[in-house]
Design brief:
Rossmann fold, about 15% strand, alpha/beta
Length: about 190
């Protein structure tokens, strides 16, 4: 397969996945409810914690930056933190307690009842995201998951599960970034107007 054919194949897969998500009314409704709960938490003075691994870690960091800085309009910052960016915390927890608890232990130490958690996992099976979702249940913190495939274990553990269609991880990640930008855009409008 030459480069042009490969690009066209990938574009077609991306388009098909986006069309599937566009037509999935149940998923879109869950997404809308997730936005409402984040807005509610922000109005209560809460904070958004986000976490992921690999490319999803980059997406978590990217989304936190959009909230703290801005997406489309000048506005006051919204408190958000990617739990995968502090190398000292990650390596100390990983070394002393194990990689599976790098996010749950941070939630236990930082989060309050006003906060909310967003996990990003293409497989829905990332052990450290699953532990974070367990911690949210223990602390009665609402949780949202952006996942793919069949949602994995995370689908049943999160309060709001948004499953991006697609076979390839790269396609799922493309949809996750569209979801993340839309989430931030909707919250900006709700909190600050157009």
């Amino acid at each position: 397969m030459n480069t042009i054919a490969r690009l066209k194949k990938n574009l077609e897969a991306s388009i098909q996945a986006k069309q599937q998500l566009f037509a999935d009314e149940a998923c879109l409704e869950v997404f809308s409810k997730a936005i409402e709960i984040i807005i509610d938490r922000y109005k209560q003075g809460g904070r958004l914690y986000i976490a992921g691994n690999g490319g999803s870690a980059a997406d978590a960091q990217h989304l936190a930056a959009e909230f703290v800085c801005r997406l489309a309009h000048d506005r006051a910052p919204l408190p958000a933190e990617a739990l995968n960016v502090d190398s000292s915390i990650l390596t100390s927890i990983g070394n002393d307690y194990g990689f599976d608890v790098i996010f749950s232990r941070q939630l236990a130490g930082k989060a309050t009842g006003k906060d909310i958690f967003l996990g990003i996992t293409t497989s829905g099976q990332s052990p450290n995201i699953l532990k974070a979702l367990e911690q949210c249940r223990i602390m009665n913190i609402p949780s949202i998951i952006f996942c793919g495939h069949d949602g994995g274990q995370a689908k049943a553990m999160a309060d709001y599960s948004i499953i991006a269609p697609g076979i390839a991880t790269s396609t799922i990640q493309e949809l996750h970034i569209i979801l993340a930008h839309t989430l931030c855009e909707c919250i900006e409008v709700a909190m600050f107007g157009k």
